[in-house]
Amino acid sequence: MTGTQLIPTERALALIGGEPSDANLRRYLHGIPGVDAVGLEQRAAALGTRSVKTTSKAWALDTIIKLIDLTTLEGADTPGKVRSLVAKALTPDAGDPSCPRVAAVCVYGDMVPYAVAALGAAHGDPDKGGVSVAAVATAFPSGRASRSIKLEDTADAVRAGADEIDMVIDRGAFLSGRYGLVYDEIVAVKEACKRPDGSYAHLKVILETGELNTYDNVRRASWLAILAGADFIKTSTGKVAPAATLPVTLLMLEVVRDWYRLTGEKIGVKPAGGIRSSKDAIKYVVTVAETVGEEWLTPHLFRFGASSLLNDVLLQRQKMASGHYSGADYVTID
Amino acid sequence: MTRLAVPKTYKLYIGGKFPRSESGRTYEVLSNSGEFLANAAMASRKDARDAVVAARSAVSGWSGATGYNRGQVLYRIAELLEGRRAQFVAEIRDVEGVSAAAASAQVDEAIDRWVWYAGWADKYVQVAGNANAVSGPYFNISVPEPTGVVAIVAPQDSSLLGLVSAVAPALVAGNTVVVIASEKLPLAAISLSEVLATSDVPGGVVNILTGSPAEIAPWLASHADVNAIDLVGAGSLDWISMQVAAADTLKRVFTPENGPDAAAPALGRITGFTETKTVWHTKGLI
């Protein structure tokens, strides 16, 4: 990310038609057409029925691994746990050197230095064969802290070397219609992602769709986050059920597609939480390809937030390579 | 007016549920005299894969239960079999074409065998385990532990007795089971699964597949998440290849047995699917 962030913000202001006040944002967001919930769920279900086999499946599995944000977000995390996560990120399948690396490791802010140290020379852009460090910030997962704490939380992670920041929106404010507050917070956190050299850490905005109650709210929150300068919109923290679902992800992809058509700017999408099987992940890959196009299947535009998904993908890869079913004894215990 | 018969569709038993085959295939089960009896699901390798997943997830609960508890649960199955003996007798007569007395004798034998194995659940450890002699102030104890997921090719010439003879001993130690029933005589196997589903056996502990053992068994033999395979009913298959495939993942293997005495009751059928764990423990220091 470069220092050209002001341009989209000015464009956002032009779209909103004034200052990002509650009233202006409300007029804009509530002017967006409602979601056809039945049609959305039916479309998602139809996309989930595609049969992906043999070489296509092999391609899909490798693509999924390259798009994974390998995640550990537990209160019991330790530097050792983070180091083993990084080892897994760099060498997902020790028995198969052709297995690609994941896109990033996703940890709590205080674990960023350990992740950076463990990655060493491999720390870098996933497009160039590196593995990024993503940190959750802004009082993840609830987001219930004062603005200054959230900003310091973010800046601290960026200083420690995080390439990507996963922030949570204030769902309470969003649901009570204080859109201006949510907007300002995203803008402020984006500013806190700024590094001394003027570049920005990638900002992923977590909508926590499981708490937004309706598809209309998900669509509005997606637009709000993108208007405020999100580089990625992410479904969930993984701490609230339901987490990522295929219809919600499809809806967010549609917003991203509409934004691309409107402005030519590509925003990323990250479903997170609850995607545990390769079969499910392949449905998401199909949905991305059918909604925004295959060019979105790169680490800069699509990610899976997952921990146990990787092992299932590895088991499927082993099955395809060896011809017989593999088992949990042949992948690491996380 | 004649009443239209409503034939039963016999489905698979995987993870405590009764799904159709993922492949959508069925095959006709014929009586001994060649008449149509029922449609049974024809399991595919993916059903076997799903059954192994179900069995794997049931291992911790079933092997973690006490031997007393497993014994009670297994004995309860025998009680329920007794209550449905008329159905089993009728099914065995239909598919095997035997007399009522012979069918009844087979059900009796199956129930008795189940009770016999149930009794071993809290006893086999004492028989197969050992306090080893050591030259130091500590105990050294060897105990048998269940190996995990056991795949079974049930005897193909027996409806119920063969199945019970192979499944019951594997369950005693706390293993979970994926069993391929007799291809030609599957009805009693699925009725047994209905008994299991309404007993206290947790879902996934026993998974019953119907269909072609020749098609499914090799996948189970090479499956890396299966810990042991009982080929008792695989005599007419290429079981040597399966044994070779099983060796690749260090499975314990029982080889085929033929005839009416196949899988005869024996302690070895229980201990064959266990692993010996040896631990030491200090003696009291005072």
Structure description:
The complex is a heterodimer of chains A (334) and B (286). Chain A is of the alpha/beta class and 334 residues long. Chain A has a single domain, classed as Aldolase class I (TIM Barrel). Helix content of chain A is 46%, strand content 10%. Chain A has 13 helices and 8 strands. Chain A has helices at 6-16, 22-29, 37-47, 54-66, 79-90, 112-119, 147-159, 171-175, 179-192, 215-228, 246-263, 278-291, 309-322, and strands at residues 68-71, 104-108, 132-136, 164-168, 202-206, 232-234, 268-270, 304-306. An 8-stranded parallel β-sheet of chain A has the order 7-6-5-4-3-2-1-8. The radius of gyration of chain A is 19 Å and the shape is globular. Chain A starts with 5 loop residues before the first helix and ends in a 12-residue tail after the last helix. In chain B, 43% of the residues lie in helices and 19% in strands. The longest helix of chain B is centred in the middle third of the chain and has 21 residues, at 100-120. Chain B is built from 10 helices and 11 strands. Chain B has one domain: Aldehyde Dehydrogenase, Chain A, domain 1 (3-Layer(aba) Sandwich). In chain B, the strands form 3 sheets. Chain B has a 5-stranded parallel β-sheet, sandwiched between helices. A 3-stranded mixed β-sheet of chain B has the order 1-3-2. In chain B, α7 links the parallel β7 and β8 (206-209). Chain B has helices at 45-64, 67-83, 85-96, 100-120, 124-128, 161-172, 187-197, 213-222, 239-248, 267-271; strands at residues 9-10, 26-30, 36-41, 130-132, 138-146, 149-153, 176-180, 206-209, 228-230, 252-254, 274-282. In chain B, α1 packs across α8 (213-222) and α8 (213-222) packs parallel to α9. Chain B is of the alpha/beta class and 286 residues long. At the A-B interface, loops of A face α1 of B.
